[in-house]
Write a sequence for this structure.
């Protein structure tokens, strides 16, 4: 079953390495969590990631990943309230204590934050300011804990209608206003292809703000190679920028899960050739 992945990553000619991380909320999802981790390891990938942490047995996940030589590349903050609303900021900030403990158990330093649904009747400028304020307050605590918060814009045309933050441009504006190395962007190529396109240009122009990537093809949110996105070129651009983090495979396999991983690894290898 093993895939041709060199030492946990796919090495390029210049020494850079693309490291792929399987999202086990979407891949091998019909199996128990520990079996999903084992299947990812058997497939030769170096990392897994998932969404919510509070409903999971974190010590078991940590044991399963360590036993198989994998890492947890990211998980989701899952705040009890949307940060577009200042009324939720106290709960959002208090939630970090549990997030930090989860990060320590999992030996994971990248945590995904979503900002919440747009508030009807509230000016967007006010909601934008609320997001900046919440993340500015969180930044010193995150820095002290050596945790990188990655803020994710999502598409509102297909998957997340009503979500506040959809464009990469506004995301990068928010990060400029915060000015903390602990607050970065999660650049999801699938979401941004639907929202705005111009993928390679935007990644290149704002690379310093990006702390994590997600990939899936469009349409359908299936594995790379199933749709319209030229992932050889996209991954080549990411590699040549010297990205040292993980590229999360957050897609729904269109057929066999293992075969979808094989196809994705092949594309990544072509990008690194």
């Amino acid at each position: 079953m093993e895939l041709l992945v060199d030492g946990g990553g796919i090495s390029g000619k210049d020494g850079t390495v693309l490291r792929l991380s399987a999202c086990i909320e979407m891949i091998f999802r019909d199996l128990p969590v520990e079996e999903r981790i084992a299947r990812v390891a058997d497939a030769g990938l170096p990392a897994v990631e998932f969404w919510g942490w509070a409903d999971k047995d974190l010590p078991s996940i940590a044991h399963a990943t360590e036993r198989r030589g994998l890492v947890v590349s990211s998980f989701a903050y899952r705040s009890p309230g949307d940060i577009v609303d200042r009324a939720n900021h106290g709960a959002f900030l208090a939630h970090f204590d549990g997030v930090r403990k989860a990060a320590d158990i999992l030996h994971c330093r990248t945590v995904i934050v979503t900002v919440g649904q747009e508030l009807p009747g509230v000016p967007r400028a006010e909601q934008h300011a609320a997001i900046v304020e919440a993340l500015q307050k969180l930044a010193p605590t995150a820095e002290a804990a050596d945790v990188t918060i990655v803020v994710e814009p999502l598409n509102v045309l297909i998957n997340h209608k009503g979500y506040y933050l959809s464009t990469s441009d506004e995301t990068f504006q928010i990060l400029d206003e915060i000015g903390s190395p602990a607050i970065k962007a999660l650049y999801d190529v699938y979401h941004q292809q639907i929202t705005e396109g111009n993928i390679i240009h935007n990644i290149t122009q704002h690379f310093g703000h990006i702390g994590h990537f997600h990939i899936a093809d469009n349409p359908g949110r299936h594995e790379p190679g199933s749709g319209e996105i030229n992932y050889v070129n996209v991954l080549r651009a990411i590699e040549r920028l010297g990205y040292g983090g993980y590229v999360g495979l957050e897609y729904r396999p269109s057929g066999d899960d293992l075969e979808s991983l094989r196809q994705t690894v092949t594309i990544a290898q072509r990008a690194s050739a």
The first helix runs from residue 33 to 42. The radius of gyration is 18 Å. Residues 1-7 have pLDDT under 50 and may be disordered. The longest strand covers residues 17-23.
